[in-house]
Design a protein that fits this description.
Helix content of chain A: 25-40%
Shape of chain B: globular
Strand order of the largest sheet of chain A: 4-5-8-6-7
Strand content of chain A: 15-25%
Mean pLDDT of chain A: 97
Largest sheet of chain A: 5 strands, antiparallel
Mean pLDDT of chain B: 81
Order of helices and strands of chain B: HEEHEEHEEEHHHHHH
Helix content of chain B: 25-40%
Order of helices and strands of chain A: EHEHEEEHHHHHHEEEEEEHHH
CATH superfamily of one domain in chain A: CO dehydrogenase flavoprotein, C-terminal domain
Structural class of chain B: alpha+beta
Shape of chain A: globular
CATH topology of one domain in chain A: Enolase-like, domain 1
Number of helices of chain B: 9
CATH architecture of the largest domain in chain B: Roll
Number of domains of chain B: 2
Number of strands of chain A: 11
Radius of gyration of chain B: 19 Å
Largest interface: A-B, 42 and 48 residues
Structural class of chain A: alpha+beta
Oligomer: heterodimer
Number of helices of chain A: 11
Strand content of chain B: 5-15%
CATH architecture of one domain in chain A: 2-Layer Sandwich
CATH class of one domain in chain A: Alpha Beta
CATH class of the largest domain in chain B: Alpha Beta
């Protein structure tokens, strides 16, 4: 770990001002990803701003029937909140499918969104990686790329975003609220929060350096059954190869409303709204669900070891939609 | 002064005043003198450290030393530490609480699990500075925790019974080499508290149930952050089942 100075701040505004005041500084909340990366000298902040005492640790009802989740709410508390379990079970399920009990006790709502890829080559400082060292090349393209992206990738980077929580938030149309060092607030739809790698894979999100996430809001839950299914190499405590967050409202075999977002496929939670709208009015059937899978996977490309993700995505989506529409 | 400096030196210097029960579960039960000696040692260190600039921006690459007050197992310690020191290293290297183990040092194995503010966490992924203001309980502090948190009285007694979870691991032979065991036990204590608070798990059929039974599947899922390379899992699960059935 490189040496750093450390301070605690007690308000979101102070956090944003502190990060603007000190070049090379980073926020630390749970620290479960940042400290991991600092030990490998992949992250080398000169100054850490401990935001664990800024408040923002509550979950509140919003006037429109949704929830506002403070950025410092721990993943375990969010998963266990009764309102989330009752109204947004897909979010509870996604959180509980991620990491371990110990990590969920520390990891925060804001930090989860900002965690970095688990690409093997990003994590190995001896290997070229455009995300870690822009311009050095992508080792995964010609390397072992079993866990890598099949959608939205670029010649520069085929990494995936590792979060389960963000996939559920994507399907729920969450909004991320921030405050900047100037004191201005901003609301970023989750769809526009993470970015695709393009020519600058070193940037994971559209958030600015002096922006601090204050909360994530969920609109009222859409009608329908909510499911989260995660396929991984072991039954617990592993990142997704493919995951699906789905909300399906079906009556008598007819689909009235459907949403689905995917993890493990791309540099951000993947969602194709055209595939969803095409299902409305259709009769729940394997053919209809396969068609939805085709629409999701337009432009999909494997890189050798991850080719299986394309057909796996089809099967997982079909299975989840079958289960969700059967109720 | 003894062969080692600081807290370590003091501990070695007065080792004869202690009753060490250095069994597999790393339970070290000091008499009252431990806290007294550590206090004195901290005062000495404080005086020494007053000469060190601690919070000004550092010169490139130089270590930053900062004061750090930790509450561990009912006692309070004032340290001067490198800002990079993890809670795990502070416990092991500065306070000589070597029950918490360093396995992967990346949050993947769970051997370093301790309780911070009553919740299980990976001590390797938390800076010691971040733990200031929260009560930390390690495997060494579990017996006192089981006695209702009256730690100072508990530590002063000659024989403190093991925490029920420790005893259950012994009764069920929930280990082979024992390296992961302190983390397994601390994690299991934290996990039981979560389950009793109604927290669901990834295998809970009914997400809204507040009193889901702790089946083998539930225990395995909730304990998946603790690896055992000896694969003592069947006995670990049995031990936790027994402790869960006992009164909290």
């Amino acid at each position: 770990m490189k040496a750093f100075t450390y301070e605690r701040v007690d308000s979101p505004q102070a956090a944003a001002q502190a990060v603007a005041a000190t070049p090379g500084s980073r926020f630390v909340a749970g620290g479960t990803n940042l400290l991991d990366l600092m030990k490998l000298q992949i992250e080398t902040p000169q100054h850490l701003i401990d935001v664990n005492r800024v408040g923002l640790d509550r979950i509140e009802d919003t006037d429109d029937g949704g929830l506002r989740i403070g950025a410092l709410v721990r993943n375990s508390d969010l998963a266990a909140d009764l309102r989330v379990r009752q109204r947004y079970p897909v979010l509870s399920r996604a959180l509980l499918a991620g990491a371990s009990g110990q990590l969920r006790n520390r990891a925060t709502t804001g930090g989860n969104l900002l965690q970095r890829t688990r690409c093997y080559y990003f994590y190995d400082p001896a290997q070229p990686c455009n995300k870690r060292q822009p311009g050095s090349g992508c080792s995964a393209l010609g390397g072992y790329n079993r866990i890598h992206a099949v959608l939205g990738a670029s010649e520069q980077c085929i990494a995936t975003h590792p979060s389960d929580m963000a996939v559920a938030m994507r399907v729920l149309d969450a909004q991320v609220e921030t405050v900047s060092s100037q004191g201005s607030d901003r609301v970023i739809p989750i769809a526009n929060f993470h970015r695709l790698p393009g020519d600058s894979p070193e940037r994971d999100t559209h958030i600015e350096a002096d922006e601090f996430i204050t909360s994530v809001t969920l609109p009222p839950p859409p009608p329908g059954r909510q499911l989260y299914r995660k396929v991984r190499d072991r039954a617990s405590y592993a990142f997704a190869l493919v995951s699906v967050a789905a909300i399906v409202d079906a009556e008598g075999g007819e689909i009235r409303h459907a949403r689905f977002a995917f993890g493990g496929l791309a540099h951000k939670p993947w969602r194709v709204e055209k595939a969803e709208s095409d299902l409305v009015g259709e009769t729940a059937s394997k053919a209809a669900f396969d068609g939805a899978g085709d629409a999701v996977l337009i432009g999909a490309q494997g890189y050798g070891h991850n080719d299986f993700k394309i057909s796996l995505t089809q099967r997982v989506l079909s299975g989840v939609l079958t289960e969700a529409s059967a109720h | 002064m003894a062969a080692r400096d600081g807290v370590a030196g003091m501990l070695f210097a007065v080792a004869n005043d202690f009753e060490w029960t250095g069994d597999l579960l790393s339970v070290v039960l000091p008499k009252n003198s431990l806290r007294a000696w550590l206090r004195i040692d901290c005062w000495i260190k404080e005086a020494q450290m007053s000469r060190i600039e601690s919070t000004e921006p550092r010169a490139a690459g130089l270590a930053v030393t900062m004061p750090c007050e930790l509450s561990v197992n009912g006692g309070t310690w004032e340290l001067e530490i490198d800002s990079r020191t993890t809670l795990l290293d502070a416990l092991r290297e500065h306070l000589l609480l070597t029950g918490s183990k360093k396995g992967c040092d990346h949050g993947q194995c769970g051997a370093c699990t301790v309780l911070v503010a009553g919740r299980r966490v990976n001590a390797c992924l938390m800076l010691a500075l971040m733990a200031q203001g929260d009560d930390v309980v390690t495997i060494e502090g579990l017996p006192a925790l089981a006695m209702g948190g009256e730690s100072s009285q508990a530590l002063a007694t000659e024989s403190v019974p093991l925490h029920p979870m420790q005893q259950a691991f012994l009764s069920h032979d929930g280990f082979q080499c024992g390296y992961c065991t302190p983390g397994q036990i601390c994690s299991a204590v934290g996990m039981l508290a979560e389950a009793r608070a109604g927290m669901p798990s990834g295998v809970s059929d009914d997400l809204e149930a507040m009193d889901a039974p702790l089946t083998g599947d539930e225990i395995r899922e909730r304990m998946s952050g603790n690896l055992c390379r000896c694969s003592a899992y069947p006995n670990i699960v049995d031990a936790i089942k027994q402790a869960a059935q006992a009164q909290p």
